[in-house]
Amino acid sequence: MRISRSSVIFLVLLSFFIRGVALAENGAQPNVVFIFADDHCTQALSAYDPSRIATPNLDRLALEGARFDTCYVTNSICGPSRAVIQTGKYSHLNGFMQNGDSFDGSQQTFPKLLRAGGYETAVIGKWHLKTTPQGFDHFDVLIGQGPYYNPPMLTGGIAAQATQEENTGYTTDVISAKTLEWLKSGRDPEKPFMLMTQHKAPHRDWQPGAKYLTWLDDVDLPEPPTLFDDYSGRSSASKNQTMSIAKNLNMRDLKLVPPGYLNKEQLRLWQEAYGPKNEAFLEKRDSMTEEEVVRWKYQRYAKDYLRTVKSMDDAVGELLDYLDEAGLAENTVVIYSSDNGWYLGEHGWFDKRWMYEESLRVPLLVRWPGQVREGTIIEPIVSNVDFAPTFLELAGVSIPDDFQGASLVPFLKGESPADWRESFYYHYFEYPGAHSVARHYGVTDGKHKLIHFYQLDEWELYDLEKDPDEMQSVYGDSGYASIEKRLKEQIAEHRTLLKMPEKDPAYSKKIRSPKNPPEIP
Ligand code: SGN
Given a cut of 90, is residue 216 above it in pLDDT? Predict the structure, then answer.
């Protein structure tokens, strides 16, 4: 009997379909919900640090699942971090090294591999990779950074032409509603799914939603001990940055002027909340010392940041409740992380970019019922370059050889992989650029950290056990000579393994020059 080519194709597709349905039903292919924040640091997530905020919904993930305590990003900035997650590769190989870049969506990405493995894929919320998402059955994404209120969004997917739509409301709530809507009625119930729900919050300029405009008004937040750091123990790089709470927050950041785009009712609520607080500040401004003004700015900035986190925590609660109600929780792995770490006043800073701990480290929480033991804490160094291989292993899809990270599934199952990385390579490329952080690379093994600001040819070495706040570089100190030598060798090994070219591949790139935001009066 002769079987036509089209029959063969039909039979192959049918067998894939049957396999997909069977796997989805018996739980072999769990759903994955990846909840992602923008600029959320562990200092503002109570499962890690309860000193400034309670995030009960995010904490649920840690209590019912695992908390990774040392998750580092390879390049601490928005677009590059997202590209690492899409591709499982460091920035120099995925081509997205700085925020001005455009993501080449035609390359191999994990959503495409998951689709080929029978998953339905969706991304809702912040995308920030410039080009239209590829590899997603459904996308509904902010355009560029997107505003905090009334965000226009681009929606489409594999089977639909992209169209732009207007939305009204607070962006965190809009993303939350769209996420629930897709789960309830947008997806194909016959297939396992991978959903990325990605918030704008708590990105600059930290605009709270109406519900939290006055929350924390009566509280004095604790100040980080390094708020008045003078950078005397370090190279010239940290003295030349422009991310200082004292000097670089502008009127909008500090809410001394309202956002220009709010609708009438949103503006009314905003003015009602900030008007009296601003008047009180401006009245006493002239009699305040410089130090008092920095303290005031820290409180204003940190509270607004935490207010945006609070709304996001509510959104996470709604999502977890829905997974429970719909009977999806048992067979869904929920993962929470952020694109980079952040300074909530430590070293006198806001923003990210550095290889120093606060900006290098991101939250990573994973709940996987029946697989991850409740309350697990995982200490070894993991990274956002490990996310893509993890997604693939969860789905039972094979991991391509050119991925540069490794799956975290063994840790989730309570194993300690014998050949896990003992040190980690970091590389930041965006200088000149926003906040003037010099280009650098470095290595850390969790105990020591060696950083090379290569344009300046200045080095720093930290003893993280003795000096966890990285206040005093011991580079060149004879007592650390053997450690310095070992870390330099590790840098060379990592660079070879990671296929890092000798010359900075981003040198020739044009970078937008930083704007000079106006100072407060
Ligand atoms: C982006 C960066 C911020 C930066 C602003 C303004 N975030 O929003 O780090 O403060 O630009 O830059 S990112 O999510 O895109 O990485 S400035 O040059 O005007 O100060």
Answer: yes
The Å distance, Cα 77 to ligand 1 centre, comes to 9
- Cα(434) to ligand 1 centroid in Å equals 6
Among candidates 414, 341, 405, which has minimal Cα distance to 377?
A: 414
Q: What is the residue whose two structure tokens read 């997917």? A: 157
The mean predicted confidence, pLDDT, of the chain is 93
Which residue has its alpha carbon closest to ligand 1 atom 8? Answer: 204
pLDDT tens by residue, 396-446: 999 999 999 999 999 999 999 999 999 999 999 999 999 999 999 999 999
Residue with the smallest CA separation from ligand 1 atom 13 is: 78
* List of E strands, 220-375: 332-338, 361-367
Look at ligand 1, atom 12, and give the residue with the nearest C-alpha. Answer: 434
CB 337 within 8 A of CB 387: yes
83 to 185, 241, 395: CA distances (angstroms): 29, 25, 20
Q: Where are the alpha helices (DSSP H) in 35-77?
A: 56-64
**pLDDT, tens digit (0-9, with 9 covering 90-100), for 329-338:** 999 999 999 9
d(CA 266, CA 147): 13
Q: Whose CA is nearest to atom 19 of ligand 1?
A: 515
Q: Which of 76, 101, 203 to mutate to test the pocket of ligand 1 (most atoms within 8 A of CB)?
A: 203
Q: Which residue in this structure is represented by tokens 């120099």?
A: 92
pTM, two decimal places:
0.93
Q: What is the pLDDT of residues 473-520, one digit of tens each?
A: 999 999 999 999 999 999 999 999 999 999 999 876 554 444 443 333
Tokens of 180: 């629930």
Binding pocket residue ranges, ligand 1, CB within 6 Å: 77-78, 99, 145, 203-204, 351, 434, 514-515
Q: Give the rounded distance of the alpha carbon of 265 from its chain centre.
A: 31
Show the domains of the chain with their CATH numbers.
Answer: 28-207+304-422 (3.40.720.10), 425-508 (3.30.1120)
Q: How far is the CA of 144 from the centre of ligand 1 (A)?
A: 12
Please provide the DSSP assignment of 102-139 as one string: ---TTS--HHHHHHHTT-EEEEEE---SSSPP-S-SEE
Give the Cα separation of 181 and 406 in Å (integer): 33
Residue at token pair 């410039």: 130
User: What are the backbone angles phi and psi of residue 7, rounded to the nearest 5°?
Assistant: -65, -40
> Residue 156 burial by CB count (10 A; 0-12/13-18/19+): exposed, middle or buried?
middle
Please return the burial class of 76, using the count of CB atoms within 10 Å of its CB with bins 0-12, 13-18 and 19+: buried
Specify whether the CB–CB gap between 167 and 176 falls below 8 A: no
